[in-house]
C-alpha cells in the first residue's frame, strides 16, 4: 500500500486544480441551493415570532450568517496570502483573489440588512457604533485590497503586495469580533455562545445554522467558479489553456 | 545599527530641510482644513468646542497622509532605495529611520501648531494638553501605518488616491482613540484610558509595521 494516501501537492498546481474546482463548484452550488432554500423556509415559516421584536427579527437569519462570513472570508484570504507569501505558491494567491468579491458582498449585505433591521428596532438606519463602524472598515479593506490588486499590472507583484495588505488588515477582524464586548454601545451582544446555553429558541438557532452552512456552500461554489476564470486569465499563454479553449470546453 | 539609524535620519532631515516648501505645504494644509470648519458650521463657541477634537484629528490625519508619498518615492525614482535594500544593514532599521525622519518633518510640526488651532476652537487648557499628548502618541503611528501604504503603492500610476483608500481605514482606530482622549478630557472623564490605548497601538505598530514595510519594499523593488 502506498504510504501517501493523498498527494496534497497534486492540486496545488492550477492545471490539476482547474477541473477539480469545476466539480467542487457544481456540488457546492447544489448544496447551497438546497440549504439556503430550506433555511429560508425555516426562518420564514417555521421559526416562532420573537416576543419582543415581532416579525422584524427574521432578518437576522441573513444578517448574522452574512456578518460571520464577511469576517471569516477575510481571515481565510489572509491565510491564503500568508501561504502564498511563504511558499510562493501561485494558486493560493488566486484563491485569495477569487474570494475577495464574495467577502465584500457579504460585508455589504451585513451592513445593508443591519440597517434594515435597525430602522424598526432602533429607529435609525445607521449608528456610529463600534461593531457597525468596524464592519464598515472591513468593507473598506476588501475594496482597498481589490483596488490595489487591479492597480498593479504585474500579476506577481500584485499577488505579493495585496497579500501583505491582507495580512496587515487582519488585525481588524478581532476588533469586530470583540467589539460588542469591549464597547457597550447600541449593538446587542451575541446570543449564541460556544461554551454555554445560547439565549435563543432552538428552531431559530437551527435555522440560523442552516443558513450559515448554506452561505458557506455558496461561498465555496462562487469562489471555485471565480478561481477557474482567474486561472484561465492568468495562464492564458500556457499550452493547456490553449488546448482547453481549442477543444471548446 | 544605531549608527545606520542616525545616519538615515540625518540624511532624510537634511534633504527635507533643503526642500522646506514640502514641510510648509503639509502644515498649511492642516491649518486651512481645520480653519474651514468654523466657516462651514458657524461660529458658535459651544458647537466648536464640541467638534474641536474630531476636526483637529481628522485634519492631522489628512495632512500626514498628504506627505506619505514622499517617504520612499524620491529614493525609489533615483535608485537610492534599491541600493539601501542591497546594503548589508538590516532593512527594518532603514525603514524605522526613514519613518522617524518623516514623522519629525511632518508629524512634529502638526503637534506644535495644534494648540494654536485648539485655541481657535476655545478649548480649555486641560483639553489642549490632552490634544498635544494624544497627537504626540498618535502621529508616529500614522507615519508607521502610512509607510506600509506608501511602500505598497510605490511607483504605481494612481498611487496617491490608492494610498488614501488603503491607509485611511487603518487610521480609524488611531482617530477614535485620539479624538476620544480629548473628548473625554473635555467632558471631565479623563483621557487616561484612551491615551493608554494610543500608546499600545503605537508600540504594536512600531514592532509590526517595519516588517510589513520591509516586505512591501522588497516586492516593489523586485
Can you write the helix and strand succession of chain A as a string? HHHHHHHH
* Major sheet details of chain B: none
Largest interface: A-B, 22 and 20 residues
Stretches with pLDDT under 50, minimum 5 residues of chain A: none
Instruction: Outline the low-pLDDT stretches of chain B.
Output: none
Tell me, rounded to a whole number, the average pLDDT of chain A.
Answer: 81
How many strand segments of chain B?
A: 0
What is the succession of H and E elements of chain B? HHHHHHHHH
Q: What portion of the residues of chain B fall into strands of 2 or more residues?
A: under 5%
CA radius of gyration of chain A is: 20 Å
What proportion of the residues of chain A is helical, as a percent range?
Answer: over 70%
Main sheet attributes: strand count, strand direction, barrel closure of chain A: none
- Helical content of chain B stands at over 70%
| Distance, first to last CA of chain B | 24 Å
Structural class of chain A: mainly alpha
The number of helical elements of chain A comes to 8
What does this structure look like?
The complex is a heterodimer of chains A (249) and B (222). Chain A has 8 helices and no strands. Chain A has 249 residues and is mostly helical. In chain A, helix 2 (60-87) crosses helix 5 (155-169) and helix 4 packs antiparallel against helix 6. Chain A is globular, with a radius of gyration of 20 Å. Chain B has 222 residues and is mainly α. Chain B is built from 9 helices and no strands. Chain B has helices at residues 2-18, 20-41, 45-66, 73-77, 80-86, 91-120, 125-152, 159-186, 192-220. In chain B, helix 2 (20-41) packs parallel to helix 6 (91-120), helix 3 runs antiparallel to helix 6 and helix 7 packs antiparallel against helix 8. The two termini of chain B are 24 Å apart. The mean pLDDT of chain B is 87. Classes of the chains: A mainly alpha (249), B mainly alpha (222). Chains A and B meet through helix 4 and helix 5 of A and helix 8 and helix 9 of B.
Amino acid at each position: 500500500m502506498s504510504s501517501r494516501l493523498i498527494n496534497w501537492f497534486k492540486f496545488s498546481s492550477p492545471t490539476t486544480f482547474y477541473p477539480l474546482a469545476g466539480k467542487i463548484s457544481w456540488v457546492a452550488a447544489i448544496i447551497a441551493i438546497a440549504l439556503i432554500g430550506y433555511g429560508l423556509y425555516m426562518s420564514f415559516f417555521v421559526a416562532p415570532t420573537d416576543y419582543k421584536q415581532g416579525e422584524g427579527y427574521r432578518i437576522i437569519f441573513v444578517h448574522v450568517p452574512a456578518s460571520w462570513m464577511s469576517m471569516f472570508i477575510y481571515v481565510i484570504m489572509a491565510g491564503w496570502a500568508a501561504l502564498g507569501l511563504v511558499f510562493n505558491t501561485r494558486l493560493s494567491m488566486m484563491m485569495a483573489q477569487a474570494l475577495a468579491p464574495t467577502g465584500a458582498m457579504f460585508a455589504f449585505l451585513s451592513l445593508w440588512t443591519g440597517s434594515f433591521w435597525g430602522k424598526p428596532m432602533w429607529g435609525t438606519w445607521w449608528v456610529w457604533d463600534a461593531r457597525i463602524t468596524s464592519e464598515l472598515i472591513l468593507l473598506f479593506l476588501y475594496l482597498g485590497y481589490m483596488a490595489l490588486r487591479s492597480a498593479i499590472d504585474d500579476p506577481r507583484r500584485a499577488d505579493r503586495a495585496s497579500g501583505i495588505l491582507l495580512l496587515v488588515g487582519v488585525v481588524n477582524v478581532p476588533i469586530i469580533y470583540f467589539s460588542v464586548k469591549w464597547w457597550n454601545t447600541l449593538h446587542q451582544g451575541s446570543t449564541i455562545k460556544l461554551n454555554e446555553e445560547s439565549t435563543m429558541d432552538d428552531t431559530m438557532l437551527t435555522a440560523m445554522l442552516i443558513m450559515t452552512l448554506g452561505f458557506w456552500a455558496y461561498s465555496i461554489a462562487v469562489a471555485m467558479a471565480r478561481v477557474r476564470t482567474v486561472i484561465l486569465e492568468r495562464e492564458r499563454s500556457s499550452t493547456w489553456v490553449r488546448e482547453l479553449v481549442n477543444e471548446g470546453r | 545599527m544605531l549608527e545606520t539609524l542616525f545616519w538615515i535620519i540625518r540624511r532624510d532631515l537634511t534633504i527635507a530641510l533643503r526642500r522646506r516648501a514640502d514641510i510648509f505645504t503639509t502644515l498649511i494644509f492642516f491649518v486651512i482644513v481645520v480653519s474651514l470648519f468654523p466657516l462651514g458650521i458657524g461660529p458658535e463657541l459651544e458647537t466648536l468646542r464640541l467638534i474641536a477634537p474630531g476636526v483637529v484629528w481628522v485634519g492631522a490625519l489628512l495632512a500626514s497622509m498628504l506627505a506619505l508619498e514622499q517617504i520612499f518615492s524620491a529614493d525609489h525614482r533615483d535608485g537610492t532605495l534599491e541600493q539601501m535594500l542591497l546594503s548589508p544593514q538590516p532593512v527594518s532599521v532603514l525603514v524605522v529611520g526613514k519613518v522617524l525622519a518623516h514623522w519629525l518633518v511632518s508629524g512634529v510640526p502638526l503637534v506644535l501648531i495644534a494648540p494654536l488651532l485648539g485655541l481657535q476652537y476655545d478649548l480649555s487648557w486641560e483639553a489642549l494638553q490632552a490634544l498635544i499628548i494624544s497627537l504626540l502618541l498618535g502621529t508616529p503611528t500614522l507615519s508607521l501605518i502610512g509607510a506600509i501604504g506608501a511602500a505598497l503603492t510605490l511607483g504605481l500610476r494612481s498611487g496617491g488616491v490608492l494610498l488614501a483608500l488603503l491607509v485611511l481605514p487603518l487610521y480609524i482606530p488611531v482617530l477614535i482613540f485620539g479624538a476620544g482622549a480629548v473628548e473625554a478630557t473635555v467632558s471631565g472623564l479623563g483621557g487616561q484610558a484612551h491615551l493608554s490605548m494610543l500608546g499600545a497601538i503605537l508600540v504594536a505598530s512600531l514592532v509590526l509595521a517595519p516588517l510589513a514595510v520591509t516586505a512591501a519594499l522588497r516586492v516593489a523593488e523586485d
